[in-house]
Design a protein that fits this description.
There is one protein chain. The protein is 52% helix and 8% strand. The chain has helices at residues 13-22, 40-43, 63-72, 86-111, 123-145, 158-169, 181-191, 194-204, and strands at 2-6, 26-30, 51-53, 59-61. It is built from eight helices and four strands. The chain is of the alpha+beta class. A four-stranded mixed sheet has the order 2-1-3-4, covered by helices on one side. Residues 84-205 form the GST C-terminal domain. It holds the Pfam family GST_N_2.
Length: 205
């Protein structure tokens, strides 16, 4: 059986949700991050999650790659779209945008400023710049979601499985990120899905 390595509170939550949405026979393995003795370093030399280890030992890393691979294991799933279709390209576009502009371009600076400046005295400024970038990135998403429930095709897709992770993280950042009715509604719709509820319960256990 394939194994998906995840960590509580990490971006791997999106791939966890996708496994449940797709009903795939994948073993979920919880690991600790940034601990030298953690199992994840034996699986992924980078020590990052998610990491998908296939039955034959092959490894796939990075959320955007794993999400697409998982969806392709269930041909015809509404979570993705056929090869060559416009919708598939749109879903891939959103995955790229979320991964670069929201995750690495914004949250990474907020959560791990030491990666951008070695001087702790400058970390507040790094976090502030990350917040500015995050607001700009979310503005684009908010405009797109106005009048829509989900990102592509009026249905939940792997792009939403990924985006919901970061919309959920906004509550950690204080009131300045809590005033969007559109994003708050999106978060509630995401949290209401049985797959998300099951994933949350599993990771909090």
């Amino acid at each position: 059986m394939s194994k998906l390595y995840i960590a509580r509170g990490a971006c791997s939550f999106g791939t966890h949700v996708a496994v449940r949405e797709l009903g795939l026979p994948v073993e979920l393995v919880k690991v600790k991050l940034r601990e030298p003795g953690s199992l994840i370093y034996q699986v992924n030399p980078l020590g990052r999650v998610p990491a998908l280890q296939l039955d034959d030992g092959a490894l796939i890393t990075e959320s955007t790659a794993i999400l697409q691979y998982l969806a392709d294991q269930v041909p015809g799933t509404p979570l993705f779209a056929p090869a060559g279709s416009i919708e598939r390209g749109q879903i891939q576009s959103w995955l790229s945008y979320i991964g670069t502009e929201i995750h690495v371009g914004s949250f990474r600076a907020i959560n791990r400023p030491e990666r951008y400046h070695p001087d702790p005295a400058e970390h507040t400024l790094v976090r502030e710049r990350g917040a500015v970038q995050l607001k700009a990135g979310l503005s684009h998403i908010e405009k797109h979601l106005t009048g829509r429930q989900w990102l592509v095709g009026e249905r939940f897709t792997i792009a939403d499985a990924y985006l919901g992770v970061f919309i959920g993280w906004l509550a950690r950042l204080g009131p300045e990120f809590a005033d969007s009715a559109v994003l708050n509604g999106y978060r509630e719709a995401y949290r209401a899905r049985p797959s998300v509820q099951a994933a949350l319960a599993f990771e909090q256990d």
